[in-house]
Design a protein that fits this description.
The chain is of the alpha+beta class. The chain contains 3 helices and 11 strands, in the order H-H-E-E-E-H-E-E-E-E-E-E-E-E.
């Protein structure tokens, strides 16, 4: 998908409608629109180049929107380079692998394994999606320590 429209066939529609509407109103009120960079990315080990790169020139984030397909919404997916391997558990089941926002090609999408390795596969595979959100700048951690037993509590 290369434009900013939402249809029920795409992840952005699901995350910003079905998933978003399933969360509590208090949580919805903490979210603001953010920009998600969707540049197609073939093999590239440079983190900054993962999203904002033209030829061999890495551009500033301010210039990024001029060189990259962007999408604006309250909920997106992590991008290549934002790999949360330690949060995915241990093992190789499909629930331990998550999709990233960046396509590899017209037929493959990047994902990250539980070990933190980036791979690309057809989106027909059944892997997890970990929503990525943008919080209001006034939101703070008001409790918890970030573990499974004591997750962070957010508030203003």
């Amino acid at each position: 998908k290369t434009d900013n429209t939402q249809t029920s066939d795409y992840w952005d529609y699901y995350l910003n409608n079905d998933w978003y509407n399933s969360i509590e109103e208090t949580s919805k009120n903490m979210l603001v629109d953010g920009t998600y960079y969707q540049k197609q990315l073939s093999d590239d080990s440079n983190y900054k180049g993962a999203v904002c790169k033209t030829a061999s020139n890495i551009v500033s984030i301010k210039e990024c929107a001029k060189t990259t397909t962007t999408w604006t919404g309250k909920v997106g997916l992590p991008r290549y380079g934002e790999m949360f391997a330690s949060q995915q558990g241990i093992g190789s089941s499909n629930s331990k692998v998550m999709w990233l926002i960046n396509p590899f090609s017209s037929s493959n999408v990047w994902n990250v394994s539980d070990g933190g390795t980036a791979n690309y596969l057809s989106p027909s595979r059944s892997f997890g999606a970990r929503p990525s959100v943008n919080l209001k700048s006034t939101i703070k951690i008001t409790g918890g320590n970030g573990t499974k037993e004591s997750p962070f509590i957010l508030g203003e």
